[in-house]
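Support case: zinc ion complex. Customer-provided input:
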Amino acid sequence: MQALTIRENARTIEEISWQIAHAKKMVVVTGAGISTSSGIPDFRSKEGLYEMIKNKFPNERITGQQLFDKSYLNNEKIRKMFYVFMGELHSLTTAAVPTMTHRFFKRLSEQKKIMHYYTQNIDNLEAAVDLDAVQLHGTMNEVYCDTCGFTVQFTKVHAEIFKKGVPPQCNECRKREAIRQASGKRKHRIGDLQPNITLYNDVDDTTRGVYIQKCVKNDLRKKPDYLLVAGTSLKVYGVKNLIKQLAKSVHQNDGKVVLVNLSGVGKEWNSVFDYQILAHVDEWAELVEEHIGLNKTQKLLMGIAKKTSASVNESISKGRVKRRRKDRDQDRENVGSNNDCKKKTLKRSKAEVLEVVEALQ
Ligand SMILES: [Zn+2]
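Agent response - structure generated as follows:
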C-alpha cells in the first residue's frame, strides 16, 4: 500500500484520476468523512451532539459508542438520552446539504461507472443528489415500529416527540388495537417507533441485511474493476469484511483499490489497498474532477459568467472616472457609451456560451 498526499504525490494522484475515468465496474464505500462539510457538526466537537447531551443530562456518564449500543437501551435513563439524541440528530440531518463528494459520486454514477454505492452514513444526504445508496447502517429518513415492523418516513413531528426523551407510538398498532378491542379481544402492546438505523450489538438479520448481501453477491459475480473507499477509518467489523471481500475480487480482475481519508489506516490493510490518499475527500474529489473534467461544462460556463461580470463592471467604472472630468453634455454621452458597451459585452458572452455548449455536445 502506497501512502500519498495531494501536494507531494501530484503525478500519482493524477494517474489515479485517470484510472477512475477508465473504470467501468466500480464499487464505492463511504463513511462519515464525506459528510463533514455538510453542516452536521462532528458529534465530538464543542457544538456537537455529545456535548449537548452532556449538558442536558449532567449527572449521566456515557460514551458516544454506548449511546449507539442496543444493549445499553435497557437502561431507562440511557434510553431517554438516546431518544433526545435521535430527535436532535434528525433536525441536523434534515438541515444539512450534500457535499462536493456526494455530487462527485453522483456524476460518476450518471456515467454508469458505479455498480453499487455503499454508505455507512445514516444522514441520507445521497437522496438530496438523487444518488442510489445501499445504506449499510440504515437511515435517519425512516422510523419503524418495534412491534409490528411498520416503517414510515421520519418526520419533524416524530423528531419533536423524540426530543422529549420518549418514542412516538405506532399508528398501525393503534388502529389494529382499536379493532381488537371493539371485538372484545385481549389487549396487545402498542409498538414504539424507532429510527431505522443499525446499532452496535444489534443483530442485523432484517430485510436490510438480506438486501446488502444480495448487492455484494451481485457485485462479486460481475467482477468489479475498481474499489473506492472514502471518508472512513474502517473501524466497524462488518464494513471491514465487506471491503476485504470486494478488494480481493477487484485484485483478481487486475483492478485497483483506493482509500481516501484524512487519517491513515494500519498495517492490517497493506495488502488490501493499493493506495491510501491522505486528504479531505472533498479536496480530492475536486482535484479528480479537474483532471478528468467531470464538471467541465459547469466550470466553463462559470468562467464566462465571471469574465462577463468583470467586463461590465470595468466599463461602468471607466464611465464614472470620465464623468468627473467632463462637463454635463459630455457626461450624458459617456452614459450612452457605457450602455452600448454593456450591451456588446452581454451579446458576446451569449455567443461564447453557445460556442462552449456546442463544443461539448
Ligand atoms: Zn406497530
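The pocket of zinc ion is lined by residues 145, 147-148, 150, 170, 172-173, 191 (CB under 6 Å).

Case will auto-close in a few days if no follow-up is received.
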